[in-house]
Design a protein that fits this description.
It contains three helices and 15 strands. It is mainly beta and 257 residues long. The protein is elongated, with a radius of gyration of 24 Å.
């Protein structure tokens, strides 16, 4: 290899390293106004299954919608299939009105401190009544709708979206692979965001006439477990990741102990 080519390669490497270090990194939008379902017990790393309760206004109505979310998992992980339970009923519904849930739509995406990985869709769900005998799921101040959202860990669409976010290039093209939990955590992923739209039918209780159709929106953040254990040189080593993707060792156990 001649000296000019060696110098050119060296200069290219220096410029690439310099540019990579100087390119500003766009941060994700602020989500501090969204309710958080905390899943990180600092001692055990397991879900603090306390749930989140919300009271939502209904446009044009004096009564409210009560929504209660509860994690169905001991440990909430991006890469695992997981369940989110929810209960919906009314608050202060007048005696002359009947309310039915026409449809529930839930989108689940990932939340990251880095804009490149924030908002990538992970799962979507719709639920409506599956017969023609009723207008929808009936709810009132005493009668609730109990639902469950089974959220996928990694499907092809999610892996594809995350691959493009990572912009892994090989031979001039983007390639995809299945990611580990630590891959998401080191990219600043710290929660799932669930965006919900609940379509209501509000009816006259006496005549059964549909008076109004109205949608109520709700959203929720679910913190992921930020601890991952690796097998390193015969030791089980557990790391804790912060929201910027940095990790620190918090526990080390010999494999044979």
């Amino acid at each position: 290899m001649n000296k000019k080519r060696i110098r050119a390669i060296a200069l290219s490497a220096i410029l690439s390293a310099g540019l990579a270090g100087c390119i500003p990194q766009e941060l994700s939008a602020d989500v501090s106004n969204v309710a958080i379902l905390t899943t990180n017990d600092e001692e055990t790393g397991k879900t603090l299954n306390q749930g989140v309760a919300q009271e939502k206004d209904i446009q044009g109505e004096k009564f409210k919608l009560s929504i209660h979310y509860l994690s169905g998992e001991d440990t909430w992980r991006i890469t695992s299939n997981k369940k989110l339970y929810f209960e919906i009923k009314t608050l202060n519904l007048p005696d002359n009105l009947a309310v039915y849930i026409d449809n529930i739509h839930m989108d689940t995406s990932i939340v990251s401190t880095k804009a490149a990985f924030d908002g990538i869709m992970q799962d979507t769900m719709d639920d409506r009544i599956h017969n023609s005998l009723m207008l929808g799921f009936p709810i009132d101040n005493e009668r609730s709708y109990f639902g469950v959202n089974e959220i996928e860990g990694q499907n092809d669409s999610f892996i594809s979206g995350y691959s493009y976010g990572n912009a892994y290039y090989h031979g001039g093209s983007v390639y995809q692979r299945r990611y580990l939990e630590s891959d998401y955590l080191k990219d600043g992923v710290w929660a799932n965001k669930v965006d919900v739209v609940i379509d209501l039918l509000i009816c006259d209780k006496t005549t059964g006439e549909v008076l109004r159709q109205v949608s109520v929106d709700s959203n929720l953040l679910i913190e992921v477990n930020d601890k991952v254990t690796f097998l390193e040189k015969g030791d089980y080593v557990t790391y804790d990741y912060d929201r910027d993707g940095s990790k620190k060792e918090i526990k080390r156990v010999k494999k044979n102990d």
